[in-house]
Amino acid sequence: MLELWLTRHGETEYNTNGVVQGIVNSNLTERGAADAQALGRGFAAKHITFDAAYASDLQRAVDTAEIALRAANIDLPITKLPGLREQNFGMFDGQPETQRQGALAKMLADAGVANVDSLNMLQMVNLVRILDIHGGKGTAESSKMSLARFNAAIQQIGRTAEQNDQQRVFIVAHGAIIWLWLNSLGMPADAGFIKNVAVSRILFNDGKCTILSMNDRQYVEAGGGTKNIPTQEFKLD
Questions:
Q1: How many domains, in total, are found in the chain?
Q2: Rounded CA separation 26/146 (Å)
Q3: Which residue of 15, 123, 202, 208 sits 20 to 30 Å from the alpha carbon of 182, by its own alpha carbon?
Q4: Is residue 167 part of a domain?
Q5: What b-and-e string marks burial along 149-164, b requiring 16 or more CB atoms within 10 Å of the CB?
Q6: The CATH number of the domain where 21 resides is what?
Q7: What does the H/E/C string look like for the chain?
Q8: Backbone phi and psi for residue 201, each to the nearest 5 degrees, phi listed first
Q9: Does a structural domain hold residue 159?
Q10: Which pLDDT does position 234 carry in this prediction?
């Protein structure tokens, strides 16, 4: 039985400063690096080992994977896959979250949508794509676009693991794209945002993916990391 341990990266400077990350890089904060280390210690404490390791090629994901594996005393090369990158938010990448929220609020108001104070990730991503087509360079991904390349990466990882008789694979990616992918597998649309260094376990069997657990921070907490981290939301203030 093959399990994919899909993990979000540690907290970054952009996370704490309210900046949209998307496909731009942001360094781990001191707490982000400490929690990545705690994640590895939690794996070791619970006797979790891995047969292979992958990460998005964005630095925050690579750093999280390297720190966690080192702390767990697991000596594995990390394969970097661009397909595991975060959702591309186009003109909003690297900009204040308030800018994106303001643009979404205006778009909804112009459309006559009343009493909307929050969007789930799927709705937000697809509206951002429309905004970027009309006001940016059209580089923002729709959910269909990002899910296609992310799922292709997961299938590549899963097929490779099956061919090599691997049982457990560590994957570090990003909050928005993990949410979108889990939602495509059946996670409810009202599910909270994926937390930093939270693990979602996926059963992979001949190309079929089944959710075993979601958004689980027990391993970082077992390793002495931060507790009771609030789930992020995208509210329209």
A1: 1
A2: 20
A3: 15
A4: yes
A5: bbbebbeebbeebeee
A6: 3.40.50.1240
A7: CEEEEEEECCCEHHHHHCECCCCCCCCECHHHHHHHHHHHHHHHHCCCCCCEEEEECCHHHHHHHHHHHHHCCCCCCEEEEHHHCCCCCHHHCCCEHHHHHHHHHHHHHHCCCCCCCECCHHHHHHHHHHHHHHHCCCCCCCHHHHHHHHHHHHHHHHHHHHHCCCCEEEEEECHHHHHHHHHHCCCCCCCCCCCCCCEEEEEEECCEEEEEEEEECHHHHHCCCCCCCCCCCCECC
A8: -95, 130
A9: yes
A10: 45
What is the C-alpha to C-alpha distance for residues 49 and 179, in angstroms, rounded to an integer?
25
Would you mind telling me the total number of residues written for the chain in this entry? Answer: 237
What distance in Å separates the CA atoms of residue 177 and residue 83, rounded to the nearest whole number?
10
Q: Which domain holds residue 177?
A: 2-89+141-222
**Mean pLDDT per 10-residue segment, the chain (237 residues):** 97 95 96 98 98 98 98 98 98 95 88 70 95 96 98 98 98 98 97 95 98 97 86 47
- Whole-model pTM above 0.90? yes
Q: What are the tokens at 139?
A: 């580089």
Helix axes 121-135, 175-184, angle to 10 degrees: 120
Q: Report the amino acid identity of residue 79.
A: T
Adjacency order of strands within the sheet including 78-81: 78-81, 52-56, 168-173, 2-8, 199-205, 208-216
How many CB atoms neighbour CB 183 within 10 A? 17
d(CA 65, CA 67): 6
Rounded to 5°, angle at Cα 56 from 67 and 215: 75
Residue 107 in domain: no
Find the angle CA(161)-CA(166)-CA(171) to the nearest 5 degrees: 65
